[in-house]
Design the sequence.
């Protein structure tokens, strides 16, 4: 895992730098800087818009008593996309813009669920007053807790 991260943090910036240099040679430095600034402005506006929509869907899911798992995943992917758009470069900007498109985010969610979903065991218990466990497990103990207040003071 460390080697993968090390390669990602060294190779991706080098590829981005090489692409920006090639773009600058093909056009001009001014055009290259303009593209970087333009993608930063447009990307921040799109990320803010998509983030607000994801937040609205999150609140709606909570109001309906649903577990907001897809909304949370969308929010994390939008946050990741915004981070990619903050990184100057053509490749990271393209990936960031792709993650801001709802249909592409859906594909990314399915890909990530297939890739890392098998590593976790998920058991949901629902929302609301009448929530019941979705699986019966003999190791699960059904219990209730109550807060007890004692008015007796012991001064020592």
Sequence:
């Amino acid at each position: 895992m460390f080697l993968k991260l090390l390669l990602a943090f060294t190779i991706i910036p080098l590829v981005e730098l090489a692409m920006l240099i090639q773009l600058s040679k093909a056009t001009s430095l001014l055009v290259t800087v303009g593209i970087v600034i333009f993608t930063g402005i447009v990307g921040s506006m799109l990320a803010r818009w998509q983030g607000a929509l994801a937040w609205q869907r999150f609140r709606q899911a909570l109001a309906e008593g649903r577990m907001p798992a897809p909304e949370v995943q969308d929010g994390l992917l939008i946050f990741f996309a915004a981070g990619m758009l903050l990184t100057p470069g053509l490749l990271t900007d393209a990936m960031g813009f792709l993650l801001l498109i709802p249909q592409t985010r859906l594909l990314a969610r399915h890909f990530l669920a297939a890739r890392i979903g098998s590593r976790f065991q998920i058991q949901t218990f629902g929302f609301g007053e009448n929530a019941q466990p979705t699986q019966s497990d003999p190791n699960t103990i059904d219990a209730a807790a109550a807060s007890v207040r004692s008015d007796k003071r012991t001064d020592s």
Q: What stands out?
A: The chain has a mean pLDDT of 83. The two ends are 57 Å apart (CA to CA). The CA atoms of residues 85 and 93 lie 5 Å apart.
